[in-house]
Hints:
Strands 3-4-5-2-1-6 form a six-stranded mixed beta sheet, covered by helices on one side. The protein has a six-stranded mixed beta sheet with strand order 8-9-7-10-11-12, sandwiched between helices. The protein has 15 helices and twelve strands. It is of the alpha/beta class. The chain has three domains: 8-123, Gyrase A, domain 2; 130-213 and 395-439, Up-down Bundle (Four Helix Bundle (Hemerythrin (Met), subunit A)); 219-382, P-loop containing nucleotide triphosphate hydrolases (Rossmann fold), CATH 3.40.50. It binds guanosine-5'-diphosphate (GDP) and zinc ion. Zinc ion binds at residues 411, 415, 422, 426.
Amino acid sequence: MTAYSPTIVAIATAAGRGGVGVIRLSGKNLQALAQILSGGKTPRPRQALYTDFVDKEGRAIDNGLMLYFAAPASFTGEDVIELQGHGGPVVMQMLLHRCLELGARLAEPGEFTKRAFLNNKLDLAQAESVADLIDASSQSAARMALRSLKGSFSQHIHTLVDSLINLRMLVEATLDFPEEEIDFLEAANARGKLAHLREELEGVLAQATQGAILREGMNVVLVGAPNVGKSSLLNALAGDDIAIVTDIAGTTRDTVREQITLDGVPIHIVDTAGLRETDDVVEKIGIERSHKALQNADVALVLIDPSEGLNAKTEALLSTIPSNLKKIEVWNKIDLFDMKADILRETAAQQVSKSGANTVIRLSAKQGEGLALLKEELLNIIGWQGESEGLFLARTRHLNALNKAKEELENAAIHGYDNIELLAEHLRLAQEALNEITGEFTADDLLGVIFSRFCIGK
Ligand code: GDP
Ligand code: ZN
């Protein structure tokens, strides 16, 4: 923490009207401020004080509860005051201005949590989970964010780092005895310890991968010729009417997006405008957006009309899809063709090859048959294994760090006892990667990026 940390203030509750509004302050020695603000009362730590909040002239701006948390037993580790007033925008603004008048400055997004991190109240993975908990888009995501916040993820990392430090001490110690270093490492079973460490890391990586799926979800695009049923499928998946469905080809002029939740996993679905050549200006814009959506997608649902099959038009569409996208071929309108959904899931070995799809699913967007199969396949394709006990929310940043550590441990194993100095160096780099997750030795600019994405008041 810098020597001088000014008092910060923010409205912590959501903007707009509400029964209660909360203003939060953090800084050094806030008792004096609390006394002035309450018109001379002295709040006791962790006790609610019912009081007027008064202006410069001693007139009440509002009344409500004042909560005082004395440093270091507070969220930020500094003195914290929370004012619970009436949640009207004008009252909240007046209270906020009063706090500014008393010397506080407006908090930046995430600044409270950043101070908590800098004062060692939370590590970086925990701090990130504060934002994830607030942003959680499903109950599972919220549960898992809370687990991370409580330190479940960090605990795994600490365990790994502890084992790694033990191994490093062993290896570094042998560097001083070049004569008998290999015997020494053999006797201490350094090889076995490294193998065990790599196994443990694999386990954490697998869990974190699941956690990242739950946090980031999956981007799905619907592609297919006009009238094949893209809007209908989007509506069927979303469970209500958001796209315009008509019999006129080209009605879906704009991309229409919808977020659904499958087994807790957020799925962002974008309906494209058909991706075809057109002179219509409005439609052109839609088509451009569709191409953008494709660039960000993980999975493409390629819709096919069974009466036409995989025709030239659809093949042309397929050629515009980035090749790294996973594809599911969806034969729609099976209700018109007396097809059955349950026998219709085919594997790549069968007929999928032509479109390059991973799977073929046949369904009826209109009647719902086969929809469940499609949902199942979507979760399958992304590798979601279902929420399990102890799972925690993770970010791409965490996965990158874990993969870096994994790579370094691999390198360490390759060197074995051939070159102890390189072995030591790879172990050191592995630890550095793991430490990035919890925020030990994290670059300042990374901290800036992480905390700037918070909302104000957190
Ligand atoms: P889009 O242009 O690809 O978005 O296609 P729409 O979703 O607008 O659907 C075009 C037409 O096909 C509409 O009349 C839909 O009611 C109809 N349709 C869509 N899905 C099905 C289906 O599964 N069965 C039947 N019978 N009709 C469907
Ligand atoms: Zn090497």
